[in-house]
Amino acid sequence: MDFIDNRTRAIGAMALDGLQERAKAISANTVNVLTPNYQRKEVSFENSLRNVIERENEKEAIKLQNSAMYNQNPKSVLQGQSPAQIAFLNTAYEEGYSINIENDTSEALGLDGNNVNLESEMMDEAKTGMQYQVIASLLSKSYAMMNTIIKGQNQ
Question: Whole-prediction pTM value?
Fold first, then answer.
């Protein structure tokens, strides 16, 4: 396990980036609640993040399989790796990850053409804030644990 560049921290950071973009969109929606013909913004990143996690799980499975093969015959691992598999194992965490910001094309709520529901935006803001706090707290604990490991101190 690599304590400096670990996938949990990388994926957590990507989730925070997505939540930050969602918070910006919610703020823009809230500010423009009275702007005629404004279309609310939506941010999606969860499916993309889920794909990153699945790819990283697949990479871990290959690495475990390679470790088992190495214990039996070290040369077999090097000879059994195709260039495509090596390239796959070397892909960056962020590869294929995207944060999508789109206009909500649902019907307007009033006669002014605006489709922002302030109550819904406020609930989304609270949910997004809580998700951000939970992930940030987990990442903070991860870094604190790494700091303890590096310093060799018990806390």
Answer: 0.81
